[in-house]
Amino acid sequence: MIKIAVNKIYHLVILSLLFLACTEKKDVTAENKPAPLPYLGDMGVDHVIPPFRFLDQDSIWRSNKDFQNKVWITEFFFSTCPSICPIMNKQMLRLQGEFADWEENLQLISFTINPSFDTPSILKEHAQKNKVSTKNWSFLTGVQEAKVHELGVKSFLVHAGKDEEEAGGYAHSGAFTLVDKSSHVRGVYQITNPDGDADEKEYQRLKSDLENLLIHEYNLSSRKD
Fold it and tell me: How many C-beta neighbours within 10 Å does residue 141 have?
């Protein structure tokens, strides 16, 4: 009987060790790091987001330097958009919640493509209405409309432009752009479908790539303790 009991204890100990080995978070090493993401843009690694300066929802001037040493997720939207913008904002809010542990390393940025209407106070009201935490999510405005559109197309690789035939008067991409700490574009994700619904597959691809980039940029596992 004693021998049987000892054997049972031995097997329980072995099973416990195996369980811990399977569930323990691994350190990020060269061996278990995922493959790095590609560099997007015509110039590849030389395609860099240029310096910019905008007013945020609190009427404070913000530039690239305010977001340096962070990974960015960006969108181009406008507050009165009757179609895809609410879906984009909702998916950005979802992302903020799922990556709350990375608040210090992740910056979310919403550029308005209708700055003449979307003043700082309008954007602040928009953020409050959508229950957004602006600790690491900034809504930016205060630059000539044409320059914002050019920034979206040439730098962040998403479409944004005036179009009176479109709902709300603007045509823009429903995509998010992933930018690394060195201002390189590392991914573009069509968060909305052509029919205006959220694209779950693209959202999950963004999540996976974001975790990948955070691992490479900070040399840490994809989730903090």
Answer: 25
